[in-house]
Every structure is written in structure tokens, then in C-alpha cells.
């Protein structure tokens, strides 16, 4: 019963997490009628494609509203880059901010604590803030009507304050919610911020590009039927409005807004293009562990039923038919499963705080709030009862009365089927262990390649000059005057949060186009990051590499990594130095002046496996290497420098490892979930094998006595029994490996730098399961090996 309860807890945890995602946005009355426009595209030449992106171009909203009368309302939400600087005159802070259309609050009526929801975003330059943000910005004072300076460029007026967004929601605070916010801004604020930061021609080019939109476009439709009809017309919509270039394409589809939270999890962990849902995987694993528990119950119940054959014989002699015997034992199994479910629910309530910490979501808000969950619990109880009790009930119902009345105990059921059930438990355990090993090894590589090579702490300071108005050269010079600062360089964005990939061509006609990650770095970047130079040189101020384009030089210097050199046909890094490559639409050619060691600053490659570094001494993020012996002094010096140069803009600084950990958090949670499920499956299998060993050894006592009478030693008896229990475990591993291998390949394919899939995870699964099996049966084997022949041979 306890192992069955353990299996039910695992299933309920998986179900509760999936239910949490599936109930997203249910607090909003029109959520079922809201859909998100998704974008799929293929770049020129077909070198890269993505499907099902939940963002779309800004211009799509107005065109959809004009083209399709069935669309009742359209609203866009555009996250501002990174943490937005918001100041009030006497304090400056950083918040996640999102610019939205006025109708956004009609589609998602947030719980307002102050202000008029219907009019909050109707007036120009308006802002709605969360209660927490209002307290941090204004203290205990009334925030309504107060002014905010957004990104050091545009003033906005606070017109509303909202409480916590009802969970679950893609706007909420749960892990992986894609559109968290503390500040909602009217769309004209975003327009003003962009115009203040970006040149008009560049801004116009970005807004007209149908492949680079970052708006979440929501459509309110009459019903699901209207959504199906609109889907059929989106191809014609794209043909009418999207400029079509040879070899490229843009298509659109619709996604229910209620699926947006779940989709963000899939995109984060599986890159969105593998056709597998994390919710489906988790639910399948929960069912798998529950199945292991049911198999364990059936196996042990069948073996223990041998004690009840005399009872069955008496009942049949008094007129009971096979149906009556089967129903009795199915009823007993249902009662036992009901008790196990009660234990599971009590256990689940006890572990909810730990589950919330591990999973990053409060599944308790959904688990018992939905009336449908009780139907699920009832169905799970009956299904588990039938799965666990049907086989022992069937076996007992087939016992002949004369056989039952002659035996106090008998061995029931097919021995091969019993062995098969044991093997099924360990096949599931082996599958989970192999999956856990692959996920753990991949995570370890992410940590090793992400954080390796740094001898001193690295501090990242976000300094988009268009917002902060702080000249990068001035900031660099002032930071280098801080005694605890060892080196400073620039980078074009935060690591693991920004992915830019470009198609490159080689000068050699036989080389096909390649998709390449591009990074903008400043002078000294490779020294700051500890990236080794393999051949050639890095960017040097003495050569004035930054002015290559402006001076009209024949080539522009670039530095590439080892993977780039190999991908473009160079046998060695030295051979790549001097090679020319061409980016689509770029002029003049790019000349490789140096090759450095591979260093991954992103988990996903977006179709690229190599990196090209271009020089930009005015990058948005300062990378500052500080003295590890005086980190506090370094941070104080950095803050003092920033306070002098940008007193009206809140500093946004992070340690390099903190940035990594935020991006890595979702992968760590997946690893923990696999670990928990694997440990549960092993515990259930181990408990079942202990029980089976006790019963089997008891049945074979007379056989063991005979063997020892004819000269078998205790060691031989021990080897005989261990081999008997080991065989189904070994066969189970071989049966599970093909499934585990296919799943591991799918998972690793999503990573830019995957581990090599060697036999090690599968060998480890075999070793662990055999070790567990031996530990489980060890005590019973030793007891059987010490049997005194005379004692057992006298037993009736």
C-alpha cells in the first residue's frame, strides 16, 4: 500500500503541474476566446527556420483588424529590453516593463487596487504599476498622478495600480512565465523611447521587417470556430502583406492564449521545434511511475495470495463461482488503493511547500481548486485498483477447489509472468536513470562551459548609451581607476539572453552557406573572459580595427572560434587566419585575423554551431573583472562611478554567474524532476523486489534443502538465487535502452553544445539497477543460503 501511495504521489505531482499550465488565464472571463498570432519563417536560402514563435511584427495587428471583420479586438504587448530604468526624481530603480495597447486590459482585466481599469491606458504617456513597484517607487504615498521617467528619456504618468495577477498566467510570477511585468506602459511610451534611442532610418527598417517582430499579438474572436476559419485565411494574409523574397517565407498561425504559458516551457527546454511537449513528457513519466507501483502491487499481491488458497477452496466448495472470487479480490484491491490514495493526498499536502520551491510554481492553487480534479482522483483510484488487482483476482478465481483444499499455501500464477512484472518495474527504472544521467551530464556541461575559465569574479553592467547617456569610453576609463578592477571590456548584450545568428558565405564556391552566431565585443574582451587565442591576433587598439568600415578598408577584421574555422574548411586554426567570408548584405568582405577557443554564451544555437566576433567598443554591457579578494570594495567603487556618471539611471549590474543561473534555472528544475521520479521508481522497485525475494525464497526452501543435501554449498545457493533475480533486471535494461536512446537524442538535439551520447548513461543504469536488485534480495539470499537441510526437509 505504501509503495502504491508513493506511485500515486508521483502521478499527482506530475498531474498538478500539467494542470497548473493547462489552467492558465482561467481567471480572465474571455480567455477561451483570446488567441495569439504565431510566426514561422525560413530565411533566404533556407539556411535557418523557426516555427511557432509566439511573437509577431508590430504592423500585423492593424492589418489583421482591417482584413478580418470577425476579429473583435486586437491588442499587442511588447516587452522593453532587459530591466527598464524607472526613476521618480529622488530614486531610480529597474523593473520588467511591457508596453501594451489600450485593449490589453479588456482582454486581460487585471485586478486593480487603484485607478480606473477601463481608462488607465487610454490617456497618452500613461503607466500602470504593480503594488510592489508602487511601494518601492513612492513609499506609502498615493502613486496615482505621479510622474515616472522611463529609460531616462520619456515621462509617463501613473494611472493605475494592480495587485497580483491571478495564477496561473503567462503574466504571473511563476517560473517561466514569459510576460512578467512590474510596469505596464501605453504603446506611445514605447514609440517615444525607441525614437529617442534609435536613428529614424534604422527604426523604420526594424519596424518594417516581418522576421524580427517582438510583439505578442492577441486577438479576441467570437469562438473557436472563428479561429479555425481565420487560420485558413492567414496564408492569403501573408501573401498580401509580407514582402516575399526568393528562398524565404513567413507564415502565421493562431495559438490559444491559454496555451501560452505551457508553450513558453516547451520553447525554453526543447527549443520549440521537436514536436514534444514537456507537459506530455511529465505526465507520461508520472503515469510510468504509477504503473511501476501498480505492477509491484500486482506481483506482491499474487504471491501473497498463496496464503489464501484454502479460503478460496472453501468458498468455491460452498458454491462461489470464479466471478464472485474475482469481484471480492477486486473490491479488496479497490479498498487498498483508496487507502493508498488517502495516504498519497496527505503526503502531497505535506510536500507542497518543497514542490513549490523545486518547481517554481504553486501547484496547490490549482490542485484542489478545480472540481474536475476530484473526478481525476476518482478515475486514478479506480484505474490503479483495476491495474493492480485484476491479475491476482484472475489468478485466484481460476484455482480449482480440490487443489485449494489440499494446500495451505501454493504458488499461484505463471512464474514467467511474475518475472516479467519484475522486469517491467526495472525497465521503467532503467529508463528514468538513463534519462536522469543524460540530463545531468548535459547540465554539468552547461555549467562547465558557461562558467569555466574565469579566475576572478566578473561583473556585468548594462549600459545602453541611448538610455544612460554614458559614453562607453568614459565609463571604461573611470572603472579602470577603481583599484579593485582588473580589466574592462564591452559586449553586445547579456549572455544567454540574446541570440543573433547570421548567414555567412565562404570565398570558396564549394563551401555551402552557414548559419553563424555573431557577437559584438570590445577591445580586451577575450582577456576579460579568459578565452584562449589559438592563432593570429585579437582586436588591437593600435591597429584601429574599429574604424575599418569608416576608413573604407578593403576588408573588415573579425575573430572567429575554432568551430567556425572548422566549419568553413580550415584544417587548423592557423589555416583560417587570412580567410575571407561574406555576410549576406554586408560589404566589404570580412577577414579572419584570429581564431580563439570555443566559448558558448548561449544554450541554443538557433541553427548555428559556431561564433563570429565583430568589434564594437560601444557595446551595451560592460564586462568588469574584479579582484576576488575584495569584491565588496569593487562593487562599492563601481556604484560610486555610476552614481557620478548617471545619477538619474538605476545601475543594472549582475555577477556573471548570477546571469548564468537565471538562464539555467529551468534546466535545473527539469533535472530535479527527473531525479525525484527516478528515485521514486527505484524505491518502489526495490521494495517490490524485497517482498518478492522473501516469498520466492520461502517457496524454494525445500528445493534448497535438497540441493544442500546433495552437496551444494551456501555460496553456490547464493549465486543461484542472485542469478535468478538478476536475469530479469538485465533483460529489462536491454529492453529500455532503445527508448532511452531515442529520447536522449531528441533532447540533446536542442542544444548548441550537446554532450556526446556514449554508452555510459546506459551502463550506469544497468549498474545501478543490478546493485539495487542485489541489495534488495541480499538479506533473503543469505538467509536461504544458510538453510539447514534437515530442518526444511522435515517440514510438511
Characterization of the model:
The protein is α+β, with helices and mostly antiparallel strands and 796 residues long. It contains 26 helices and 24 strands. Strands 1, 2, 3, 4, 5, 6, 7, 8, 9, 10, 11, 12 and 13 form a 13-stranded mixed sheet that branches. The chain has a six-stranded mixed barrel with strand order 16-17-22-19-21-20. Strands 15-23-14-24 form a four-stranded antiparallel sheet. Strand 20 (580-583) and strand 21 form a beta hairpin. Residues 408-414 have low confidence and may be disordered.
Provide a short characterization of the protein structure.
Helices cover 50% and strands 17% of the residues.
Strand tally: 24
Tally of helical runs: 26
Low-confidence sequence ranges: 408-414
Estimate percent helicity.
40-55%
* Backbone shape: globular
Radius of gyration: 33 Å
Distance between the termini: 32 Å
Give the class from helix and strand content and strand pairing.
alpha+beta
How much beta, percentage-wise? Answer: 15-25%
Q: Let me know the largest β-sheet.
A: 13 strands, mixed
Instruction: Estimate the mean pLDDT confidence.
Output: 80
